Amino acid sequence: MGKKRILVIDDEESIRFLLREVIEDLGYHCLEAESAIIGIEVVVSENPDLIILDIQMPQMNGLEAIQKIRKINKKVPIFMLSAFSHMENVIENMGVDVQEFIPKPFDIDYLSKRITEEMG
């Protein structure tokens, strides 16, 4: 079996670059999408083992994307990223099915630890 795959969906290229470095340093394969729409296509075609998803994106936000992703794959773990710390409460109150809320700017050591734990 090949490397486990982590999909990063974020419209900011610098965030995707940083996360790709972290993910590859941990020994996983990084898939990337610059929009939720492309990210959903990647979920269908690649069936990633973990998704790291930004909330604020043009065209379709992360919350809308989660609803679509859950129709495709109910079990894939999802980490939400947001520059808005109050979004954690919004997500919890909405009952959105995510494993982790990661505020931006994120702590790379903490994120690395959580990825490793989630990927087993």
TrEMBL record:
Keywords for the protein's UniProt record, in alphabetical order: DNA-binding, Phosphoprotein, Transcription, Transcription regulation, Two-component regulatory system
Signal sequence, renumbered to the chain: none
GO BP term (any one): phosphorelay signal transduction system
UniProt modified residues of type 4-aspartylphosphate: 54
A Pfam entry, by short name: Response_reg
GO molecular function: DNA binding
Domain spans labelled Response regulatory: 5-119
Superkingdom, taxonomy of origin: Bacteria
InterPro entries in the record: CheY-like_superfamily (IPR011006), Sig_transdc_resp-reg_receiver (IPR001789), ST_Response_Regulator (IPR052048)
Name by which UniProt lists this protein: Response regulator receiver protein
